[in-house]
Protein: Trefoil factor 1
Amino acid sequence: MAAMENKVICALVLVSMLALGTLAEAQTETCTVAPRERQNCGFPGVTPSQCANKGCCFDNTVRGVPWCFYPNTIDVPPEEECEF
Structure:
């Protein structure tokens, strides 16, 4: 019985590591955008959830600029192959 539990735990750890690795690789956008550089992605009265559903960022702390805006693209350098 204990051997089966160990196999299940190992499988869950492996799946979690693969999922987290994929998320880290796929993150090529950031919501860190200077207020004056924000490109509007919403409409007047847009809610944070409506904005997020469009794949955009929401920040209502700065007046006079779009609160729902497109994220900045991060330049991700290609992975280098390791030599052993």
Notes: The first strand starts at residue 29 and ends at 30. Strands lie at 29-30, 57-58, 68-69, 72-73. Residues 17-24 have pLDDT under 50 and may be disordered.
